[in-house]
Amino acid sequence: MNINVHANPGLEQVLAVTQGSQLNNEGLALRRAGDLAGAEKKDLEAIRLKEAAFGSDNITTALSYNSLGEVYLEMGPGRLDDAEKYLKLALAARENTGPTADLACTRDNLGKVYEMRGDFRRAKEYRRGREDAMCCGNDNIGSGTKSIASRLNEYEDRTTDHGIRMPGNTGVRTLSDMRQM
């Protein structure tokens, strides 16, 4: 495991962390308010600061890559290539260092990219790729939801059962949804 440690950071690194974190927080607030273009701008500025101070293979920079990837996911099918690009940058940094939970979120986000494209096999590969780095990507979680294993088995059913593609490739459909179609 590669660990990025900065003892006695220089001014550029201190500013990148403080200003970059502030920009990410502002971007998140804009995203929650529905201003995805504003969120994109904030995340891109945070990335510029963090790459200059830490490079691209750093957990601090990876946080901003992942955040921007999530913004592009929310922007929809026209921005999936951008989402994939930034999520893969986040994945490259997070595979080597940082919390496993962060890695799991990035892997799940990449699964969403492929899910939205209708590529359920690849979505499953990213979501199942590491048993120690899995999370539930259901943003509308409530009580009584299905387990991760159950969701992955549904992927298996859809990807092996005559290559079924979901209408519009707009997200996960449950087996009960498929029966009603």
UniProtKB/TrEMBL annotation:
Residues 171-181 have a biased composition (Polar residues). It comes from the Eukaryota. InterPro entries: TPR-like_helical_dom_sf. Residues 160-181 are annotated as: Disordered. It holds the Pfam family TPR_10. This is Tetratricopeptide repeat protein.
